[in-house]
Amino acid sequence: MPNSNVNPERNIRVATLVSVGQHPKSGRTRRAGQDARAVELGLKMAGTASRLIHVGDMAEPALRQYLGMGLPQLSVLQAGPDADAVPALATHLDEQPADIVLTGVRAESGEASGMVPYLLAERLGWPLIPRIADIQTIDNGMAEVLQALPRGQRRLLRVPLPFVATVDNAAPEARQYAFGPSRRGNFAVSLANTTADDERQQWQELPAKPRPKRLNVVKAKSAADRFKAATAKPQGQGGKVIRDGTDREKAEAIMALLVAEGVVR
Amino acid sequence: MSDIIRRNPRNEWILRNRLHPQHDELTAGSGPVRGPTGLLRKNPHAVGFIGPNGIKRIDRSAGTQGGAGGLSLRARGRSAEAAPLPLHRVEQPDFYVAVVVDLAAGRLSNHDRDVLGQAHQLVKAQADQGAVVAIALGEIRDAAFDTTGADRLIHLTEVHGQPLTGYCPELKLAVLRAVDTELAPRYWLFPDSVHGGADLGARLGARLGERPAVQAWQVDAEQTVCRGGSHRTDWQRPTARLLLLAEECALPIDETRHEARPIELAAIPPVAPRIEDLGPVEVDPSKIALGEAEFILAAGNGIQDWGQFHRAATALGATEGASRVAVDDGNMPRFRQVGATGTWVTARVYIAVGISGAIQHLQGIGQCDKVVAINLDGGCDMIKRADLSVIGDSQGILGELLALAEARQNGTETPPVTANTREEERNVA
Ligand SMILES: Cc1cc2nc3c(=O)[nH]c(=O)nc-3n(C[C@H](O)[C@H](O)[C@H](O)COP(=O)(O)OP(=O)(O)OC[C@H]3O[C@@H](n4cnc5c(N)ncnc54)[C@H](O)[C@@H]3O)c2cc1C
To answer: Which Pfam families does the record match to this protein (chain B) (predicted)?
Structure first.
């Protein structure tokens, strides 16, 4: 793997967008998991010079948890709960430019569509990389970014600065937040000119219904077929068994299967 | 011969008397039996057969499972035909519903099929006639679009000479925009998956200025229900034009065939991709979380040489797993434990070495595709679960496997496998 410990560089401007998360079971507000990982990545890239941006209410106590990770300041673009965050973020980033904007993949509360980074990237005209695990190197205005794929796989991408990236759960875990720094950090509050999200006002938010499990429906033509499907044991129990032969032959049979399945190259 | 029916009272008497020693001789195989008036008589006692416990069994399954040979001709004809599914044809569609399939590894996933099924539900709910366009970007390795519900198919493997392999969302977005201008689909459907569907759908939504319904799991022509953040809320909203559908949103198509008629796009807007794919990165298999590992080599109580086991896992590039006994004995760390009280794994290939297959362990590997067992005991439960089992000492077989894997790595390929093992491979695959 290429060298992945970049020293914090002061001249790279990293802005992390943070939201208010919620505990999946109790619903209590907290720092959002993916956002905290994004903050951690920002700290790795730019140290304490990386910025935090939040659109919403500064009175939310969970925001202090991000400051507790060791950052001196959090910019709050003060807005109501129904506000559309993207225009406020775009104007803020126009005024105070950044090279890398990090976000989580999806919010932990509300609609959680994960559209904010996409809309922001579209608005700013920057490339977007979803689900990154790490930013490995930056030189000559090009960044090499490690993208997380399913099944623990990784892919290396090269992208020019500035760009937007969403941080996957595969990124290094966020550090614990400490009480002292979370008290000492301060908020830089500015009033955001946002518009209310009217469309969402029409929608209804309900507690999540458990989704029905898909049943194994048997489409049979006759009653006898249905009866058979309901009572018969599934066929094909037990696979191939090799009892005789040398260890070598047995190992070769296993290897053949591994190669056929493509897990051994 | 005269057509006077001659009765044989003695035979009739024997036929009436089921306990007569000659009764079976007279009834069996005598073809159609005529009654005294010439009426065709059916003997209800002659059907069926005597089961192993001496009780008469009548198989009325019409030969679907080849019972005791009492198949009627009609039934045999029916099962042999396996009538082809009816072809669903759309000549002049009034509108299109576009489905962008993930095509992960060149195959249609169950999620893709569900989304195609959802597309047909949306078409049916409309008054006019619509066609489902499947958009497949990249190599197709094994995908039956006709039986999964594609009326039309747009398949591209390259755009402006740039191949659609690896990560190329910008090229794919250009294709989707071309589709949007040419066909103007009434709905855009994506699987909301980590295989690229969610990413591409969000990109298209941002580009077209459409607000997508994300994690939609209950969709009809008017209303959509979407799962909200942390899966704690449902959002009920009017159905959007762009839908990112959750898994199992609708039932896949299975009763019709579709044309999958190819469509050529006239013009794709030029693109200059900014994201460059440098290819996959070698990942240390021991760092992959057990729950998402693709290939697991698991050890149980039947392992003596642990150093050899670790070397084999490294050589094969497998993630290590363990049974509870191996963990309790201190041979493996706790986070490697597979099973009810450990991790539920989803590996495609799972090799169980010296694991007996206790139910607590089998629960944990319920989702594995191919299970290979190496065990001394040919009757243990793991063998019943496994797709391939080899009976023998774990040490010897692991040693040979290690040698084979190392030979592969060094490029000194051992002599080609014998015809015998090829045969096995075919049986196994
Ligand atoms: C509440 C509860 C929860 C549990 N949860 C889990 C769980 O999450 N995961 C789990 O794994 N277990 C769990 N168990 C334990 C489980 O019931 C079994 O005890 C355990 O899985 C057995 O492990 P094993 O197969 O490695 O050992 P054994 O049952 O001892 O099997 C060893 C196998 O190795 C074979 N063998 C021996 N020597 C050799 C050799 N030289 N070469 C090849 N094969 C050889 C034997 O034939 C035998 O089949 C749980 C039990 C309880 C009560």
So the answer is: ETF, ETF_alpha
